[in-house]
Amino acid sequence: MSVNKEIKRITTHVIQSMKERGEKIAMLTGYDYSMARILDEAGIDIVLVGDSASNVMAGHETTLPITLDQMIYHAASVVRAIKRSLVVVDLPFGSYQGSSRVALESAVRIMKEAGAHAVKMEGGAEIEASVRRILSAGVPVMGHLGLTPQSIYKFGTYSVRAKEEAEAGKLMEDALLLQEIGCFAIVVEKIPAELGKRVAENLLIPVIGIGAGGHVDGQVLVTHDMLGITKDFQPRFLRRYLDMFDMVQNAIQQYISDVKSSDFPNEKEQY
Predict the structure, then answer these.
(1) Which secondary structure element, helix H or strand E, spans residue 187, and what is its range?
(2) Distances (CA, A) of 162 to 148, 183, 192
(3) What are the C-alpha distances in Å from 13 to residues 5, 29, 85, 137, 257?
(4) Which end of the chain has a smaller Cβ tally under 10 Å, C or N?
(5) Tens digit of pLDDT for each residue in 210-266?
């Protein structure tokens, strides 16, 4: 069932009001026009044009190879489909970490060329200057703490983050810092549920989790994972709502069979 077309656009202000009244925020990834149209009409609150496109769309092992130009291409495709949802776009690896000036240029390109509504950045205190500079230009920023996939080679593993008290304390400090400097929301990834709860309770802005338990303000998954388009990725936090890999494969095999047997096209499918 598609949502009422009269529903107003989701903005950062709407997301904030959802936290304040205790309404959970639903977020999924989108990388192309066709899927984004389905997401938007289904009523998703936020579409994240994630750098996970590097994995699920391009087949890379990590999120690191995707470029700013490629992110803009994906984001522009998504924005053209959206009538209601808030569109947040990942700043890719290398486009903001080293220089706040480069960070601002990257964010401005995403906003101008793709028509995005906000950007997302991984990290805390170490990227403070870049976050501040982007915010000073009026670009909304969503933070991302916990498992930050762009730092995979520093971590050396995709395992749960912030299990030790020192790292948990640093995560809380970073979350409060990002709130203080003006981020409108924060994603926390693959952290203990109790820590996710603590962060959400201590922050005034929305905290959206992926593998962060049920006490945060919202949830995000990669669409290709929750639809079962990808088969190999099976973390504990993933719930599959369809098994599209097998469903689509079966349909294609049926098409192949129908073509080879001359069953397709039939009399009604010709001019």
Answers:
(1) strand 185-189
(2) 12, 21, 7
(3) 20, 21, 13, 18, 52
(4) C
(5) 999 999 999 999 999 999 999 888 899 999 999 999 999 999 999 999 999 999 999
Note whether 37 and 66 are within 8 A (CB).
Answer: no
Of 126, 189, 201, 269, the catalytic one is 189
**pTM, full prediction:** 0.94
Q: Which helix (H) or strand (E) holds 171?
A: helix 165-181
d(CA 51, CA 169): 27
Domain 12-240 has CATH 3.20.20.60: yes
The pair of structure tokens assigned to 49 is: 């044009």
Q: Residues in the chain, how many?
A: 271
Q: What's the CA gap between 196 and 15, in Å, rounded?
A: 18
Q: Where are the domains of the chain?
A: 12-240, 246-271
| 173 in active site | no
- Kindly provide the b/e burial profile for residues 25-34, where b requires at least 16 CB atoms within 10 angstroms of the residue's own CB: bbbbbbbbee
Q: Are 233 and 211 in contact (CB under 8 A)?
A: no
Q: At what angle do helices 128-136 and 165-181 cross, to 10 degrees?
A: 20
Q: Are 238 and 248 in contact (CB under 8 A)?
A: no
